[in-house]
Amino acid sequence: MDLFRKKPLVAPLSDNAGNLSKTLGAFDLTTLGVGAIIGTGIFVMTGVAAAQHAGPGLVLSFVLAGFACVLSALCYSEFASTLPVSGSAYAYSYVSFGELLAWILGWDLVLEYGVAAAAVSSGWSGYFQGLLDGFGVHLPTALSGAYNADKGTFINLPAVIIILLISYLLTRGVKETARFNAIMVVIKLSVVLLFIFTGVFYVKPENWTPFLPFGFQGVVNGAATVFFAYIGFDALSTAAEEVKRPQRDLPIGIISSLAICTVLYITVSLVLTGIVPYQSLNVSDPVSFALRFVNQNTIAGLISIGAIAGMTTVLLVLLFGQTRLLFAISRDGLLPEILSKVNAKTHTPVRSTWVVGGIIAVLTGFVPLDRLANLTSIGTLFAFLVVSLGVIVLRRTHPDLKRGFRVPWVPFIPLLSAAACGYLMYNLGRETWIGFILWLIIGLLIYWLYGYKHSKLNRK
């Protein structure tokens, strides 16, 4: 029984013939990346991370998390330009480490995208209901949140509706999806810049003292927590088969979107903790709260609209990445092949899109997900760690392979990337680790009962 059989390099490169439509360019990828990264992290998690973990040192948390992401982004860029196929880290591991680890990583990414999308849609619902309340429109309590008998909530209807609407948009075609995303990105970037240029006039430097109230360990814990904010740039590599010039455009999209977002995160965290004492930021809408704190209520309202746009694009890219991941795993036979069927008219995997949308709609609609958010961070970090090590392996096993982008200073940069991700994983809580291990055990059972027997490598 060969659990570490590798997919030949010829196979993944030939997989993309005649299936998905190649319509995306570097600009589309950059806006998709910004769409994925700027959202819940900047509009929701900055406040909690500052109040509970890092204080004004939150800026260092974003620097640390961004540093780990930049290193990982270099590794992703080399893989994406070398193996331009759907599946992201799953596909890269298949040719580097073999089928078992590829399945584990694919299953890990299913967790990352799925839990993240469910959590973000819950946050989207909260902001949307707050906006409705501002206009005097109030949803019935039973329809306003996931099932909770004590609060009288039964289903989070707005979250379900936005998931289904985005699923429908994804079935219409990737170019249409990218165009909608670009519009939403312009809106939310405008709102983020509005906050920065308005808030900078209300910054009080004394709010930055003490700068590290929880010590450097608080900065590290904050970095592990806000890593959630960076998820999504890896989803760009799942679009590889729909990119016109993947060897050139994928590295540009991955690195440029990450650079833009890291600068914005650092700037926003500085302004935010300069306006409001960090102890007061443990709120669900810290950016809007900061402006209300200085009586800029009109602009605070605009920030809420930007937050809704921001989380909409995050959902869009997360669902996009999830559907392309299932498409790739299914095409290899490790999941039912119905998930890799592509619609002849729209050139999109319609069935897998509705399967993903349906499952996430049920999760976000009925299941409280507050305690699962860190599972997204640990899943992302694990994927980044494996991809980083995969660069070293592929350099040794296929040194002459044509690469559109090459990570400098191999193996130093990939090892540093893996070490940074491992360190942040170590600083996540015990409950997160238990949930992650249980998820992987479930995945191994599915592989044992279905995936190994149906793998296309069994048919060769």
Automatic annotation (TrEMBL):
<keyword id="KW-0472">Membrane</keyword>
<keyword id="KW-1133">Transmembrane helix</keyword>
<feature type="transmembrane region" description="Helical">
    <location>
        <begin position="406"/>
        <end position="426"/>
    </location>
</feature>
<feature type="transmembrane region" description="Helical">
    <location>
        <begin position="182"/>
        <end position="202"/>
    </location>
</feature>
<feature type="transmembrane region" description="Helical">
    <location>
        <begin position="375"/>
        <end position="394"/>
    </location>
</feature>
<dbReference type="InterPro" id="IPR002293">
    <property type="entry name" value="AA/rel_permease1"/>
</dbReference>
<protein>
    <submittedName>
        <fullName>Amino acid permease</fullName>
    </submittedName>
</protein>
<dbReference type="Pfam" id="PF13520">
    <property type="entry name" value="AA_permease_2"/>
</dbReference>
<feature type="transmembrane region" description="Helical">
    <location>
        <begin position="254"/>
        <end position="278"/>
    </location>
</feature>
<feature type="transmembrane region" description="Helical">
    <location>
        <begin position="350"/>
        <end position="369"/>
    </location>
</feature>
<keyword id="KW-0812">Transmembrane</keyword>
<feature type="transmembrane region" description="Helical">
    <location>
        <begin position="214"/>
        <end position="233"/>
    </location>
</feature>
<feature type="transmembrane region" description="Helical">
    <location>
        <begin position="432"/>
        <end position="450"/>
    </location>
</feature>
<keyword id="KW-0813">Transport</keyword>
<feature type="transmembrane region" description="Helical">
    <location>
        <begin position="57"/>
        <end position="77"/>
    </location>
</feature>
<feature type="transmembrane region" description="Helical">
    <location>
        <begin position="298"/>
        <end position="321"/>
    </location>
</feature>
<feature type="transmembrane region" description="Helical">
    <location>
        <begin position="89"/>
        <end position="107"/>
    </location>
</feature>
<feature type="transmembrane region" description="Helical">
    <location>
        <begin position="29"/>
        <end position="51"/>
    </location>
</feature>
<feature type="transmembrane region" description="Helical">
    <location>
        <begin position="153"/>
        <end position="170"/>
    </location>
</feature>
